[in-house]
């Protein structure tokens, strides 16, 4: 039963809609109604299309496409695919019917704009150019290859054209699909209701309006028929509203012209010329409009001057035959005139043998009965002839029913003409004006008009939409001879009357006090007259012909006659069970209920088409719904309430509905219910008020749900502007009435509550996402390790449990940061544009969100074993985000984070300080002083630990400035203390090594000693970084440690020089044994006398070799060039000073040859070695060196003289001692 009733409702809707669609241009019923502003809708992406787009992006990332791209673009596409295309929110957006290519493009654009901003600038390439280039590549990926794109573009272009411009037939087709009406059922309704007949439909409107007025009158008499109102006094106002709406429809109908004639002729042929042989195109007939006051409906107000008819007469002269008495070369032409048509026209002149024209003459006349006169002439070539010769003429009577096709007519020839069978082929038509509804010859008799029964030419003329006149005409008269209006009359078929002579088929029109009897000679003609009068009178009763007569006449009626056609359509409709719907009275329908069904089905159809409509109807659908409401009196509040109800129902099911659309409907209903309509106070039905309150509560709950789940209801901020529209609608819903604005604090409180819930919802979803990913990850790991020993695996799981928790909380922290950054990128702007104070609520939302995270973080930290530091990456990630976010920096969660990790940092620094100190103590005790890096293993380990500790603490970017400075100062002091301790230990080891080394010429500085030197020097170079802040010695730790290291390096330098001074002193002690005057000098001299001078220089060469070996070792092992040069300068200077002092002590004595040879070797070789090591010349040629050099020259000269004398065998007397001493002093000076 329910399904049958539903089908009947749809059939009734089809009837009503079919009528309304035909009359869109007739009734203009929606004139002046407010319409929603529509914008062009994009094509939505279906589930299959989304899968295809994903495959195209996968192919691009796999390198299977021909699109050239750089690494930055590829990384952006990867991020876009992972973050959005593969996410649940993208699927939800597609399922909501709101996703379009433009949405995908805008989301990608926002993602790349942020990435492109951080790219380095390139000369000649702006970032805007890069953005546009990337978007073009993105569009290419989304749209696919050219063949697919071409087919899709053609389908979309067709759909777009169909969306914007829809004709009547397209609207028929749309609503057949919407209502589920079959095409043949629609055709049956169309034919049976005569929907192609505008007169019939105008009459239907008049009957409907009359029925509505009667319904209003019944309500006025019986107030129980009225609906319940919120105020009893609204009953009278409600009746007045109904009358006003009906009067508006009547006024709209009355304002339409009733005699709109066509200006286009059926034949596009040449025109006649004037009779005086001058060529001119004839005038086209123009339709006259009868303008009459809609209030003048009585017979007394209508005069003959109000009845104006205008006819267009077309006459086409095609050819003439039977002219034999005229030479074939003579010229023929025809003239034509119409009585009352004004000018006379003629054809072109043609030869008799070629008497063909096919030319047309157009005339405009004002009387329905006219005569057409056609004459045939032959041109008279004689000079004295005054006129051409007439060969024949033809007179034809025309009526508005004349519509003759081309036929031959015999012309009347002159008496003396030899041609008696002249024929002319003519086509004649007399167009009937629109205000002439029916015409023809009838027998008629009345009481006051047409008092005698006789045959007259009658015409049913429409003066206005509500005024019709029955007029009789005579030939050549434009004004009716007699007339009567049909106001108040009722027409019906009548049985044959035998009292009257003439006429076979009778009908009559009757009203109180007057009856007119009509008769025709043809039943089809009678039927046409009855139907025309039925439409004109607007009566409720539809005339039905007597059954016996109808059956007899239908059998005799021609197949194509109007009567047989109408009867055949009615029979077909009856056969298919459509008669019930055809005969139904629209005034008896519950149009409010039917409209609800219609709007629901239209909305379903709209949401399932290929456009992302978001609930907006297209222009054609809106227009039809407007027409239906205006035509059948559907209340605007009822319309918008049902619309809101349907939109809310679909939005609650997950479909995307534009909040702006709901805002419009809600504002209309609110202004209606609260009595603040723009057009004044209107009636409010109690059911409307209850329904409005129910929808208001539902709408508020729905909006709260949307704001709470804004990330999932508006994925990535799409559809564009939807979130802002929802926030605006919240403010409207919270208003108590349409005028008083809602306090800002109330709106703020509601949204704050929603955002608090949103924080919990978002964090719960993130936790669930992390749990699912973690379970999948560890299940895979378990399957990979299922062959391991069960006990060992269990023990490993238990040991790794705290670390797993840290990994989980770190992943959750990253997800939370990504979520809040998405909120900032895609939602913050819309939130702030809706309300100025929304920034504060977003901050509160973020703080609540982080407070939920803080609970889990604190639980994870408390579950960690003592003195473990795996949680510091969590702090780094969170602190870096919070510090770079101005609204969150220094906030509640940031402070809570500092409080959680400050004790861990302090404890970590304490333990690291103790650990480094212990490693120094143990390391230097066991240090072997092997080269390692820039120093030894202990020093490198200590410096690495200090540097790692300072880097780690610095990378924390501790937000509290005071605590950060405290940590910095402590670490710098720790570094200074540690370096000082290491340097002291190194110096102790150095001194020990130097003390234990030999003091003979066999000494070579050990590599360990060089490593120690490098250790100290490396400490000096690293002290600036470890003890100063960004190169600035704020706490003077670097200055102190640098001075200390400089002192220690000087000590090491001194010990090195002292070692060689000891060796040199030992050599000089040995040489002192050869001094003149000593007790042992003669013995050593005698021992050496037998040896050569080369043997005397061995001691000097040993020293030089010792010096050279140590210098080479230092040069190879020690890394600081400046330290090496300083050491060598000090060694050279000390060496020259010692030798100079030793020689000075022997100023009064001559040197032994052995002494001279040894010292000469040491001085010369040392000078050369130190010169090779880069000692400056001014240091080498010091005063001591010059003194030594002078002394050695003198001694060598003396030795040379003595040797020469000895070899020659001559006894040469030696100078006295006093003279030799004097020469030495002069040389030394």
UniProtKB/TrEMBL annotation:
The keyword Transferase does not apply. Residues 855-986 form the MHD1 domain. Residues 540-560, 771-800 are annotated as: Disordered. Residues 435-538 form the PH domain. Keywords: Calcium, Coiled coil, Cytoplasmic vesicle, Exocytosis, Lipid-binding, Membrane, Metal-binding, Protein transport, Signal, Synapse, Transport. It comes from the Eukaryota. It is found in: Cytoplasmic vesicle membrane; Synapse. One of its GO terms (molecular function) is metal ion binding. Pfam families: C2_CAPS, MUN, PH. This is Calcium-dependent secretion activator. It comes from Ramazzottius varieornatus (Water bear).
């Amino acid at each position: 039963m329910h399904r049958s009733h539903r089908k009947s409702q749809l059939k009734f809707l089809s009837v009503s809609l079919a009528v309304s669609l035909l009359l869109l241009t007739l009734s203009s019923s929606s004139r002046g109604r407010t319409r929603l502003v529509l914008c062009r809708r994009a094509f939505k992406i279906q589930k299959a299309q989304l899968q295809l787009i994903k495959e195209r992006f996968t192919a691009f990332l796999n390198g299977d496409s021909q699109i050239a791209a750089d690494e930055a673009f590829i990384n952006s596409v990867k991020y876009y695919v992972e973050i959005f295309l593969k996410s649940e929110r993208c699927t939800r957006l597609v399922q909501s019917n709101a996703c379009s290519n433009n949405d995908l493009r805008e989301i990608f654009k926002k993602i790349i704009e942020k990435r492109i901003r951080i790219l380095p600038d390139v000369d000649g390439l702006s970032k805007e150019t890069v953005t546009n280039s990337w978007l073009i590549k993105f569009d290419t990926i989304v749209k696919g290859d050219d063949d697919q794109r071409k087919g899709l573009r053609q389908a979309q272009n067709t759909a777009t054209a169909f969306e914007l411009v829809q004709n009547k037939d397209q609207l028929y087709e749309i609503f057949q699909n919407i209502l589920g009406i079959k095409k043949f059922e629609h055709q049956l309704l169309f034919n049976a209701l005569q929907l192609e007949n505008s007169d019939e439909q105008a009459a239907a409107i008049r009957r409907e309006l009359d029925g509505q007025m009667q319904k209003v009158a019944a309500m006025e008499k019986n107030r129980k028929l009225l609906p319940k109102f919120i105020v009893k006094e609204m009953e009278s106002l409600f009746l007045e509203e109904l009358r006003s709406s009906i009067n508006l429809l009547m006024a709209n109908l009355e304002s339409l012209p009733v005699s709109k004639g066509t200006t286009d002729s059926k034949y596009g042929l040449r025109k006649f010329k004037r009779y005086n042989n001058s060529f001119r195109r004839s005038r086209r007939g123009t339709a006259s409009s009868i303008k009459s006051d809609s209030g003048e409906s009585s017979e007394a107000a209508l005069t003959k001057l109000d009845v104006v008819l205008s006819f267009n007469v077309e006459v086409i002269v095609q050819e003439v035959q039977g002219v034999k008495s005229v030479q074939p070369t003579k010229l023929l032409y025809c003239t034509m005139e119409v009585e009352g048509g004004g000018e006379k026209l003629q054809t072109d002149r043609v030869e008799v043998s070629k008497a063909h024209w096919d030319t047309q003459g157009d005339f405009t006349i004002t009387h329905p009965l006219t005569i057409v006169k056609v004459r045939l002439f032959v041109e008279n070539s004689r000079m004295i002839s005054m006129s051409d010769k007439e060969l024949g003429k033809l007179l034809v009577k025309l009526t508005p029913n004349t519509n003759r096709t081309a036929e031959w007519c015999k012309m009347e020839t002159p008496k003396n003409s030899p041609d008696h069978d002249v024929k002319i082929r003519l086509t004649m038509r007399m167009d009937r004006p629109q205000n002439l509804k029916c015409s023809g010859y009838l027998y008629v008799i009345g009481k006051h008009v047409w008092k005698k029964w006789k045959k007259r030419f009658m015409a049913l003329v429409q003066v206005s939409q509500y005024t019709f006149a029955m007029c009789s005409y005579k030939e050549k008269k434009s004004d009716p001879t007699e007339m009567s209006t049909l106001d108040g009359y009722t027409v019906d078929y009548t049985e044959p009357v035998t009292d009257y002579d003439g006429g076979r088929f009778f009908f009559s029109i009757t009203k109180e006090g007057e009856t007119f009897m009509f008769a025709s000679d043809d039943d089809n003609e009678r039927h046409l007259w009855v139907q025309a009068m039925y439409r004109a009178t607007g009566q409720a009763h539809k005339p039905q012909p007597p059954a016996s007569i109808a059956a007899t006449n239908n059998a005799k009626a021609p197949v194509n006659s109007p009567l047989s056609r109408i009867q055949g359509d009615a029979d077909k409709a009856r056969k298919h069970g459509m008669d019930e719907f055809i005969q139904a009275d629209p005034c008896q329908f519950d149009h409010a209920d039917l409209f609800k069904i219609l709007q629901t089905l239209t909305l379903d159809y709209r949401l399932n088409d290929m456009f992302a409509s978001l609930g907006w109807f297209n222009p054609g659908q809106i227009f039809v719904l407007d027409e239906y409401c205006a035509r059948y009196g559907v209340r605007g509040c009822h319309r918008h309430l049902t619309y809101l109800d349907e939109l809310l129902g679909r939005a609650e099911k997950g479909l995307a509905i534009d909040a702006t659309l709901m805002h419009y409907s809600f504002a209309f209903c609110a202004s209606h219910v609260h009595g603040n309509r723009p057009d004044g106070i209107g009636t409010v039905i109690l059911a409307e008020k209850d329904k409005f309150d129910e929808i208001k509560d539902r709408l508020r709950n729905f909006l709260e749900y949307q704001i709470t789940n804004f990330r999932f209801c508006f994925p990535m901020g799409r559809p564009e502007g939807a979130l802002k529209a929802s926030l605006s609608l919240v403010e409207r819903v919270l208003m108590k009435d349409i005028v008083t604005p809602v306090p800002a604090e109330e709106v703020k409180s509601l949204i704050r509550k929603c955002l608090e819930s949103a924080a919990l919802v978002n964090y719960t979803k993130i936790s669930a996402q992390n749990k699912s990913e973690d379970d999948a990850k560890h299940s895979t790991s378990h399957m990979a390790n299922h062959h391991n020993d069960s006990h060992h695996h269990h023990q490993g799981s238990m040991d790794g449990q705290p670390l797993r928790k840290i990994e989980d909380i770190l992943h959750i922290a990253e997800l939370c940061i990504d979520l809040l950054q998405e909120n900032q990128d895609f939602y913050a702007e819309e939130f702030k544009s809706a309300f100025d104070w929304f920034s504060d609520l977003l901050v509160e939302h973020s703080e609540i969100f982080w407070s939920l995270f803080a609970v889990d973080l604190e639980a994870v930290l408390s579950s960690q074993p003592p003195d473990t530091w795996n949680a510091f990456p969590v702090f780094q990630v969170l602190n870096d985000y919070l510090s770079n976010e101005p609204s969150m920096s220094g906030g509640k969660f940031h402070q809570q984070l500092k409080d959680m990790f400050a004790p861990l940092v302090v404890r970590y620094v304490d333990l690291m300080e103790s650990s480094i100190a212990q490693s120094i103590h143990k390391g230097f005790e066991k240090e072997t002083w092997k080269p390692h890096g820039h120093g030894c293993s202990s020093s490198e380990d200590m410096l690495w630990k200090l540097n790692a500790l300072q880097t780690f603490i610095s990378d924390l970017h501790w937000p509290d400035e005071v605590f950060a400075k405290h940590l910095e100062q402590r670490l710098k002091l720790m570094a200074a203390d540690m370096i000082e301790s290491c340097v002291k230990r190194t110096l102790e080891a150095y001194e020990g090594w130097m003390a234990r080394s030999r003091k003979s010429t066999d000494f070579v500085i050990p590599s360990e000693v060089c490593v120690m030197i490098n250790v100290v020097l490396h400490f000096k170079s690293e002290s600036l970084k470890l003890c100063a802040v960004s190169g600035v010695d704020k706490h003077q730790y670097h200055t102190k440690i640098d001075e200390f290291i400089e002192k220690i390096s000087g000590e090491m330098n001194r010990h090195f020089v002292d070692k060689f001074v000891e060796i040199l002193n030992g050599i000089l002690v040995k040489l002192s044994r050869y001094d003149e005057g000593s007790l042992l000098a003669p013995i050593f001299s005698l021992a050496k006398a037998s040896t050569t001078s080369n043997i005397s220089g061995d001691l000097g060469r040993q020293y030089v070799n010792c010096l050279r070996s140590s210098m080479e070792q230092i040069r190879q092992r020690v890394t600081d060039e400046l330290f090496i040069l300083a050491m060598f300068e000090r060694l050279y200077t000390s060496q020259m000073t010692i030798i100079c002092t030793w020689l000075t002590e022997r100023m009064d004595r001559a040197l032994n040859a052995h002494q001279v040879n040894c010292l000469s070797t040491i001085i010369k070789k040392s000078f050369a070695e130190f010169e090779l090591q880069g000692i400056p010349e001014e240091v080498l040629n010091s005063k001591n060196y010059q003194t030594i050099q002078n002394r050695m020259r003198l001694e060598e000269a003396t030795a040379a003289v003595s040797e020469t004398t000895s070899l020659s065998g001559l006894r040469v007397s030696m100078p006295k001692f006093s003279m030799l001493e004097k020469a030495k002093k002069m040389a030394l000076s």
